[in-house]
């Protein structure tokens, strides 16, 4: 009997279609003249800013479906503008602070819009937006005492957090809660208790981290879990070598990242996966320790990332001051080699995600949107500074694909806010 010809699955056909679209773009680039190549690799800064400022001033009727995500729209747009090195005029600043103030619940936290119930995700977006605006008026508008009480209400005995009253418990909730508390200088033992156990229960056999226990490893949740474990000083408990194994295989033939095994490339994972690599570069000593002593994975350790001396000794043992971990982490010298192809990722972002009319997108054939604009640009910033010993020092031209004018502002890789805005917020809240 003749053997049957295997019929490709829907997933295989979709993968081939994406690869075909991407490779056509790359073929066009390779066969273009030098001048055309230069233009193709140029970040369309002016077009992106036009798109972003337009969205900050007015959104059309189609955005009504995102009514419960309005602080997210603020964050995606404001952070993208800041990455591009621009700032708001005084009127837009006042309007932003006023609007987000009306989203703040009297019992703590921020809702998706005025009068909506507080939610951890929109609270994270609102806090990061106000930090990105910066200045006394924006930072002092955050009611930290009621926000802390909201975080306490969301905390669960398992160590996880609920996204909102009666809402889901997942790794994203842990990250948003711990990130908010850390950057506002209100993180304490009570909020941290058992969080590490919950995150650890979500690391899968593949090495990545799922949204909940016994779910599939996912790029966004992996970033959230890893960043959370750093902020609570328990990153050594993760199986970091397996996590790296999972991450490195998420960069595919298209040069961008996929979010899960056997899924399509997506521009937003330029940050969710690329940002995870930026975090791992600074915890290399724990990875080395696990490779030498594999039985050390998941157990208690005397190693700490808190109170790190200036020389960047990640194994200094002292009392944990949770609110200094984010600051000490960014001042620590990276100790790991490069784990992903930064030039390849920049190629995918610049050639495949930029829309001609401004804004960035998931992949060729998709429409631009503010979410992908934010995270494609965040990933591009990670690429620019990934090889640097110090994010505040301009990177050498060799690290960049395309003209040096593409250079974006550096971000704090744990919080994904502009680094100089993070420092301003850190000083402001530490003095309160």
From TrEMBL:
Catalysed transformations (reactions): L-cysteinyl-[protein] + (2E,6E)-farnesyl diphosphate = S-(2E,6E)-farnesyl-L-cysteinyl-[protein] + diphosphate
InterPro entries in the record: FTB, PGGT1B-like, Prenyltrans, Terpenoid_cyclase/PrenylTrfase
Enzymatic class: transferase
UniProt key word Oxidoreductase: no
Keyword field contains Repeat: yes
Any single GO BP term: prenylation
Domain Prenyltransferase alpha-alpha toroid residue range list: 43-417
Domain of life of the native organism: Eukaryota
Co-factor: note: Binds 1 zinc ion per subunit.
CDD domains: FTase
Similarity comment: Belongs to the protein prenyltransferase subunit beta family.
Subunit comment: Heterodimer of FTA and FTB.
Protein name per its UniProtKB record: Protein farnesyltransferase subunit beta
Organism: Cannabis sativa
């Amino acid at each position: 009997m003749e053997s049957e010809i295997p019929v490709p699955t829907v997933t295989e056909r979709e993968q081939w279609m994406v690869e075909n679209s991407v490779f056509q773009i790359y073929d066009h680039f390779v066969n273009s003249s030098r001048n055309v190549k230069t233009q193709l690799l140029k970040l369309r800064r002016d077009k992106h800013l036009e798109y972003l400022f337009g969205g900050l001033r007015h959104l059309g009727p189609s955005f009504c479906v995102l009514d419960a995500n309005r602080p997210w729209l603020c964050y995606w747009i404001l952070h993208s503008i800041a990455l591009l090195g621009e700032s708001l005029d005084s009127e837009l600043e006042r309007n932003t602070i006023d609007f987000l103030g009306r989203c703040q619940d009297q019992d703590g936290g921020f809702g998706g819009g005025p009068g909506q119930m507080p939610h951890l995700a929109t609270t994270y977006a609102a806090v990061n937006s106000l930090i990105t605006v910066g200045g006394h008026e924006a930072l002092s508008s955050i009611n930290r005492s009621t926000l802390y009480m909201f975080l306490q209400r969301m905390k669960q005995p398992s160590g996880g957090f609920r996204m909102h009253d009666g809402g889901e418990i997942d790794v994203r909730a842990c990250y948003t809660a711990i990130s908010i508390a850390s950057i506002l200088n209100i993180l304490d033992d009570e909020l941290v208790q058992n969080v590490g156990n919950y995150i650890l229960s979500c690391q899968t056999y593949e090495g990545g981290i799922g949204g909940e226990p016994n779910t599939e490893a996912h790029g966004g949740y992996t970033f959230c879990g890893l960043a959370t474990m750093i902020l609570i000083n328990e990153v050594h408990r993760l199986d970091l070598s397996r996590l790296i194994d999972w991450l490195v295989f998420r960069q595919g033939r298209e040069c961008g990242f996929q979010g899960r095994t056997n899924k399509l490339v997506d521009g937003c994972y330029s940050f969710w996966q690329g940002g995870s690599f930026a975090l791992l570069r600074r915890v290399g000593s724990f990875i080395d320790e696990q490779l030498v002593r594999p039985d050390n994975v998941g157990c208690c350790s005397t190693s700490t990332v808190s109170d790190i001396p200036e020389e960047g000794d990640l194994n200094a043992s002292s009392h944990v001051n949770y609110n200094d971990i984010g600051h000490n982490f960014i001042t620590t010298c990276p100790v790991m080699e490069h784990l992903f192809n930064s030039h390849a990722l920049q190629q995918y972002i610049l050639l495949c995600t930029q829309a001609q009319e401004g804004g960035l997108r998931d992949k060729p054939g998709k429409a631009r949107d503010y979410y992908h604009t934010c995270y494609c640009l965040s990933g591009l910033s990670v690429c620019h500074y990934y090889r640097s010993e110090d994010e505040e020092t301009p990177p050498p031209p060799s690290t960049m694909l395309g003209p040096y004018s593409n250079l974006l502002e550096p971000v704090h890789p744990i919080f994904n806010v502009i680094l100089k805005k993070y420092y301003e917020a850190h000083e402001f809240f530490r003095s309160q």
